[in-house]
Amino acid sequence: xxxxxxxxxxxxxxxxxxxxxxxxxxxxxxxxxxxxxxxxxxxxxxxxxxxxxxxxxxxxxxxxxxxxxxxxxxxxxxxxxxxxxxxxxxxxxxxxxxxxxxxxxxxxxxxxxxxxxxxxxxxxxxxxxxxxxxxxxxxxxxxxxxxxxxxxxxxxxxxxxxxxxxxxxxxxxxxxxxxxxxxxxxxxxxxxxxxxxxxxxxxxxxxxxxxxxxxxxxxxxxxxxxxxxxxxxxxxxxxxxxxxxxxxxxxxxxxxxxxxxxxxxxxxxxxxxxxxxxxxxxxxxxxxxxxxxxxxxxxxxxxxxxxxxxxxxxxxxxxxxxxxxxxxxxxxxxxxxxxxx
Length: 341
Description:
Elements: H1 2-5, H2 10-19, H3 28-32, H4 43-61, H5 64-69, H6 94-118, H7 122-147, H8 149-174, H9 178-206, E1 217-220, E2 226-233, H10 240-246, E3 259-264, E4 274-278, E5 282-284, H11 298-301, E6 302-305, E7 311-313, H12 315-320
């Protein structure tokens, strides 16, 4: 998602995050004029954006949290090195957080378009629509690459290349150019391994089976904190450096299992906020929990809490992960007994 941000305006992202999805946007027209300023080209710019978004989202989503609980929230964790050893911080994920903030940015753009239409500012609405289309196209490209759509075509392309290289190998052997033949064999072996990995990734996404659902409250098996599912991948999609910090290779199922983006209750850990957790490290709650759960992202990712204590994902979030609407099962004990006819 970092690459996607390179095509977005620094001031656009910052002002979008400061306004919030809900409520009025009194100064949005003034902010819109800033959209064509310099593009994001450095890691410093990107880090600044996410730092600002984190602070602003936290305060605008629930300004009473800091006052009531006297918490000191550090947004800077996103860009510091991960903790060593098995601590909760080893699973926090900058890319997962960026993914959520980009999603918020899309929602905010859609709100701004509607606001412009309500004011009959059609020219501005069209410019915003164009920006939204540009962002959505890039997000779609990122999702296809992440979810294996591009992996399938990549595997097919590599298969064609392998066929061509084998023909070249045969020609090299026949001409007794054994040095070239050896190089071609190495290249074929490398392509075969890459093709197999791409095919496996595409297959994993097509046949993904998840034990948990969007909005479900879970508990971390090792660290014990309560969290809410807000995203999911059928396999680990994090970087090799993150995997090393999180010690993914030591998991019983390794990286070839579903991984979940989870929102961590700020009362459990105000500095963690977003974690990327393997399925084997999560537990479903044994009993419904309708207790308090605070997180700065809850208000724009979910409609509210259902009768079982889980959160109801907004339609756009379900569509993002292609997940069906979940209906809470009816408890027979809650049904009123029918009288005799």
